[in-house]
Amino acid sequence: MTPEPAAVPAAPARSAGAPRPQPRWLARLELLGAALSFGLMAVLARRLSRGGAAFSAGQLTVIRFVVGAAVSLVAFRVRPALYRPHDLRLLWTRGVSGGIVVVLYFLALARIPAGEAGMLYNLFPVIATALSIRAFGERPTVHLVLALLVATGGVVLVLGNGSLALGVGLGEALAVGAAVFAAFSSVVIRAMRATDNAPTIFFYFCLGGLPVALPFALGAWPTDLTAWALAAGMGLAAYAAQVLMTEAYGALSIGEAAVWLQLTPLAQYGLAALLLGERVSAAGMAGMLVGVAGVAYGTVLGHRPRARGA
Known about the structure:
Residues 31-159, 170-296 form the EamA domain. The chain crosses the membrane at residues 25-45, 57-78, 90-112, 118-137, 144-164, 170-189, 201-221, 227-245, 257-276, 282-302. The chain is mainly α. It has one domain. It is built from twelve helices and no strands. It has helices spanning 24-48, 57-78, 88-109, 114-121, 124-136, 142-160, 170-192, 198-213, 225-248, 254-261, 263-276, 282-301. α2 (57-78) packs across α9 (225-248), α3 (88-109) packs across α8 (198-213) and α8 (198-213) crosses α9. The longest helix has 25 residues, at 24-48. The N and C termini lie close together (6 Å).
């Protein structure tokens, strides 16, 4: 028998109708696209929360879920085979937990600076890597752990402008809570990728998250058409980000995906400077270089060698 290609350690068993695994290089490209899409979504959300025609955090969350569900329904209409729900319990768990993540993060942004909230929220890949040891028996390599630490250090430089001065209050607690639920969601997605495809998982993410967000969307809504167009663009960016990330979890371990997800706040920082004119500091530029170096190191040396023998 020929050796099988390198696979994720202790991956959940695949069902007969499960999506076929894809090449690891393609999954890494998908996470790169997800990082850029998540960054664009965050920049648009920041733009829409300012000025006289501003949306509230709850309203932006509802728009994100409604646009995502609508695009999913169109995709299912064009290609009915895309809708293949299998594990409904995990699908609804992913939806509700994802809704909690979005609400907690936007509530944190309303109370503390975006850099501080982003830095705390970005703990979720590290937490997810720890959870994967228990959930799937994944054993990250020393190189992968080191790469994750280096990439996270780059994020700290970018979002903290070279310093790490965090207070302790409700805003910080909300951001950490969002990180914990995001890590849990990552593990749930990783488990579902053995049986369910990315579009189906994302659709239930929208369905389960919408009831969680609705109570936070009460009040007057903006009427500016330009703002609504940007809000629709934010929803489309979120759709692309979530589907690409979910698709990549079918081929990569939680640990390797965690390294690549450290590119998300770096992309957000660069896009904010490009689209919103926010200041780029020397520490921020150094952090971006450190973060990219960490991802490159983890990509080259972080995976386990191919299995030998039958």
